[in-house]
Design goal:
Helix content: over 70%
Number of strands: 3
Mean pLDDT: 91
CATH superfamily: Winged helix-like DNA-binding domain superfamily/Winged helix DNA-binding domain
Number of domains: 1
Low-confidence stretches: none
Strand content: 5-15%
Largest sheet: 3 strands, antiparallel
CATH topology: Arc Repressor Mutant, subunit A
Order of helices and strands: HHEHHEEHH
C-alpha cells in the first residue's frame, strides 16, 4: 500500500512539473505577444497578485538587486505598463503600480489562463483554487528556505 502512495506522489510531482513547464511556456508566449521581457511579465504578475509594491519589495519578489530593480521599473514606465507614485505615509518611499496598459496585459493574461479551467466543473473551482494556493504557498516557503540557506553559505566564515 505504501508503494502505491509513493507512486501517486511521484505522479503528482510529475504533474506539478508539467504545470510549471506549461506556465514557463505560457509566460514566454505572453511576453512575446505583448512585447515585454520575461522579467517584466514576472513583475506584472507580482503586482497583480500582491498589489502595489515598494521597489525594494518588488526587487525581493523577483530576486533582483536594487539597481536591477530600478532599471526594471524604468523599463516598465517607458513601456507604459507601470508607474511610480509617492507612498501615502512615507515621503522617502515610492510605490509601483500597474498602469491602464498594465491592467490590459493582466486582462489578456487572465483570459488566456482562464482557458485552462474549461474542463473543471464550476462547483470544483473553489476547491481547486484553494489547492493551488496551498501548493503555491508551500513552494514559496521551500524556495525562500533554500535561498536563505544559499545566502548563509555565501557569508564569510560560513561553513
Amino acid at each position: 500500500m505504501e508503494e502505491q502512495g509513493q507512486d501517486s506522489r511521484d505522479d503528482a510531482v510529475r504533474s506539478l512539473r508539467a504545470l510549471i513547464l506549461a506556465g514557463e511556456r505560457y509566460r514566454q508566449a505572453l511576453s512575446d505577444s505583448v512585447g515585454l521581457g520575461i522579467t517584466e511579465t514576472q513583475a506584472v504578475s507580482y503586482l497583480t497578485v500582491h498589489g502595489d509594491r515598494g521597489q525594494n519589495e518588488l526587487a525581493a519578489d523577483l530576486g533582483l538587486s536594487s539597481g536591477a530593480s530600478t532599471a526594471l521599473v524604468d523599463r516598465l514606465e517607458r513601456q507604459g505598463i507601470a508607474e511610480r507614485y509617492p507612498h501615502p505615509s512615507d515621503r522617502r518611499r515610492t510605490l509601483v503600480r500597474l498602469s491602464d496598459r498594465g491592467h490590459e496585459v493582466v486582462r489578456q493574461s487572465r483570459d488566456w489562463l482562464g482557458t485552462a479551467f474549461h474542463d473543471v466543473p464550476p462547483g470544483e473551482l473553489e476547491t481547486l483554487a484553494g489547492t493551488l494556493r496551498s501548493l503555491a504557498g508551500r513552494l514559496n516557503e521551500r524556495s525562500t528556505a533554500v535561498s536563505a540557506e544559499q545566502e548563509q553559505r555565501r557569508q564569510p566564515g560560513a561553513g
